């Protein structure tokens, strides 16, 4: 091949690679493990560096977190200054657990955001029904990608955890599905969360009536399907999901990162690559 042709070919490959990277959207769901817990050797101050390092491995564009306390969010942004985060806690303030959403400021613009509660009164802050012990909520945002101005919605949630909460989880799924159904059909939607129930549940069935589960549909999968491991590294249940519509799922990965026997959380984070 003549040298000019080789140069042109190399430039074409380089341009295609840049375009592919620019067109990709990296999404992570990560249950942080609350700051309030008495975790001894797994306390936040002993794992916050590893938590940031785990995010740095993937460098996602957007992260839906659960159980996040304000200090944990601020500690993470201090270590990863390309990110910012937002969201009220489940009582509508900033003293308790947040469904905090992190995003890369160099990749995404926050167009608008809000929240609603999983209850019979979704617009009432901190409302509790369905037998829930704590308020359960959804934090959401409409993002615009800076390079091509394509938009997408992201919803992040944390369902109740007790065995007897299965009905509440199903009702929460129905409320989320109804809320998503009112969004513009042409705008993609991605849902992250700790759903505290497995894909065999009614809640998963309700949500996947209108959404796809990236773990089931992505052509490339890495790591275990199960995600909750209670700081043991041996996961027992698949409760952390990434659901979507209007995008293409290319790959999904469960990160099992650890250092010196310590894990960044009691959940493995899950990261998915999409084409928007």
TrEMBL record:
The keyword Nuclease applies. Residues 1-22 form the signal peptide. Residues 28-267 form the Endonuclease/exonuclease/phosphatase domain. InterPro entries: CCR4/nocturin_mRNA_transcr, Endo/exonu/phosph_ase_sf, Endo/exonuclease/phosphatase. GO terms for molecular function: 3'-5'-RNA exonuclease activity; endonuclease activity. Keywords: Endonuclease, Exonuclease, Hydrolase, Nuclease, Signal. Pfam families: Exo_endo_phos. This is Metal-dependent hydrolase, endonuclease/exonuclease/phosphatase family. It comes from Dyella marensis.
């Amino acid at each position: 091949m003549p040298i000019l042709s080789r140069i042109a070919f190399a430039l074409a490959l380089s341009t295609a690679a840049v375009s592919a990277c620019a067109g990709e959207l990296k999404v992570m769901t990560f249950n942080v493990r609350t700051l309030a817990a008495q975790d001894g050797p797994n306390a936040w101050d002993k794992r916050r560096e590893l938590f940031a390092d785990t995010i740095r491995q993937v460098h996602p564009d957007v992260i839906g977190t659960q159980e996040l306390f304000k200090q944990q969010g601020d500690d993470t942004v201090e270590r990863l200054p390309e990110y910012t985060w937002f969201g009220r806690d489940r009582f509508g303030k900033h003293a308790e657990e947040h469904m905090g959403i992190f995003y890369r400021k160099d990749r995404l613009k926050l167009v608008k955001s809000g929240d609603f509660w999983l209850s019979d009164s979704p617009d009432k802050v901190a409302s509790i029904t369905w037998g829930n012990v704590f308020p359960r909520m959804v934090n959401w945002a409409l993002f615009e990608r800076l390079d091509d101005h394509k938009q997408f919605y992201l919803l992040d949630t944390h369902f109740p955890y007790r065995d007897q909460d299965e009905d509440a989880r199903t009702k929460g799924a129905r409320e989320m599905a109804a809320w998503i159904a009112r969004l513009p059909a042409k705008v993609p939607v991605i849902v992250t969360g700790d759903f505290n129930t497995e894909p065999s549940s009614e809640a998963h069935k309700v949500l996947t009536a209108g959404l796809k589960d990236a773990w089931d549909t992505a052509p490339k999968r890495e790591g275990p399907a199960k995600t909750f491991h209670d700081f043991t590294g041996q996961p027992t249940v698949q409760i952390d999901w990434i659901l979507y519509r209007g995008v293409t799922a290319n790959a999904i990965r469960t990160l099992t990162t650890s250092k010196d026997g310590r894990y960044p959380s009691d959940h493995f984070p899950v990261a998915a690559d999409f084409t928007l």
